[in-house]
């Protein structure tokens, strides 16, 4: 009754600050939908009785209707806000999401992410001439072409444009082209050293 | 942390944003009210344990969340009527106009501005004063705990507040004993 489960979902999401994506609460969602179904069925039954003359039921019907609308609002806002966070992930992490994050998404959300990726890629290809334009690079105006970076954890080998490979070991420092590093910086593997 | 995450913000003036998490939590806050006819025990309906009586008699006091108040309220006051919470009443309004900075909003009610704007939806002769107080308080306290774009919100909603309060209302918001003093 009174949409407590829906509200709890909203509260949890609201608490997760900074666009962080908590795990998808399948069980709570199922319970909230079950609550809505039960409310709806009871209202269906009561409406025919009220039409037959039992006006004392009108308050109950109206109350259940308010609860249904409240549930609907909470669940829709929950799902929509999660999609906003997932969309942001494409810009933060790139096209391949870390496994830990993928575990937090429902199957439908994963599919939505894939379709969003595709839309974005199609759009980026259509802009900026022959090869398209990668909008997810250089989100802030860059100050220089090459930057000094320090590796925060072992990442293995990394290939640079002219073919040479660099071994990214913890605490090693490198002077690399900005556009190659941007993705890794955002993932927290490299750190931009400002000297 | 995530710069690409743009959540749905709270609504402007007297309107809520349907998908805004902030507005959903704000509309969960409770309002004092009064049953205008005998009602089944709301506590039981809301799943908060059993009561002794089958129903709640007409005239009894209720505390209901804003979303329920908005849903059950109608201009003919058949089901419930809604009262102003303490902090929006005349006594507190003078405190705010004297010096809004001394009021600890975290203690008095976490959604003072947003909730106050929502109260304007229920016809009440005091609405222009309420709107004025909320706006003034925001102007004098540049860092409200929630709903930062308040003055913009209120300016857009201000016309509605003046309009609905101007209509000779069957004031469905009762202002309680303070008025008589």
From TrEMBL, chain A:
Provide this UniProt record's keywords sorted from A to Z.
Chromosome, DNA replication, Nucleus
What's a Pfam family this protein contains?
Answer: PSF1_C
UniProt subcellular location: Chromosome; Nucleus
Name the Gene3D superfamilies on file. Answer: 1.20.58.1030
Q: Is Nucleus included in the keywords of this UniProt record?
A: yes
Major location category of this protein:
nucleus
User: What region holds the DNA replication complex GINS protein PSF1 C-terminal domain?
Assistant: 143-194
- Establish whether keyword Mitochondrion is in the entry: no
Name any GO cellular component annotation: GINS complex
What are the GO BP annotations of this UniProt entry?
DNA strand elongation involved in mitotic DNA replication
Instruction: Name the domain of life this protein comes from.
Output: Eukaryota
Occurrences of domain GINS subunit (ranges): 55-127
| Matching InterPro entries | GINS_A (IPR021151), GINS_bundle-like_dom_sf (IPR036224), GINS_Psf1 (IPR005339), PSF1_C (IPR056783)
Family the entry assigns: Belongs to the GINS1/PSF1 family.
Q: How does it assemble?
A: Component of the GINS complex.
Q: What does this protein do?
A: Required for correct functioning of the GINS complex, a complex that plays an essential role in the initiation of DNA replication, and progression of DNA replication forks. GINS complex seems to bind preferentially to single-stranded DNA. Required for correct functioning of the GINS complex, a complex that plays an essential role in the initiation of DNA replication, and progression of DNA replication forks. GINS complex is a core component of CDC45-MCM-GINS (CMG) helicase, the molecular machine that unwinds template DNA during replication, and around which the replisome is built.
Q: What is this protein called?
A: DNA replication complex GINS protein PSF1
UniProt organism field: Lonchura striata (white-rumped munia)
Gene label: GINS1
TrEMBL record, chain B:
What keywords does the record list, in alphabetical order? DNA replication, Nucleus
Keyword Zinc among record annotations: no
Per the annotation, which location comes first and is thus the protein's main one? nucleus
Cellular component annotations (GO), alphabetically ordered:
GINS complex
Q: Name one Pfam family in it.
A: PSF3_N
Annotated InterPro entries:
GINS_bundle-like_dom_sf, GINS_Psf3, GINS_Psf3_sf, PSF3_N
Domain DNA replication complex GINS protein PSF3 N-terminal as annotated: residue spans:
20-72
- In terms of superkingdom, the source organism counts as Eukaryota
Q: What does this protein do?
A: The GINS complex plays an essential role in the initiation of DNA replication.
Instruction: Name the family the entry cites.
Output: Belongs to the GINS3/PSF3 family.
Q: What is this protein called?
A: DNA replication complex GINS protein PSF3
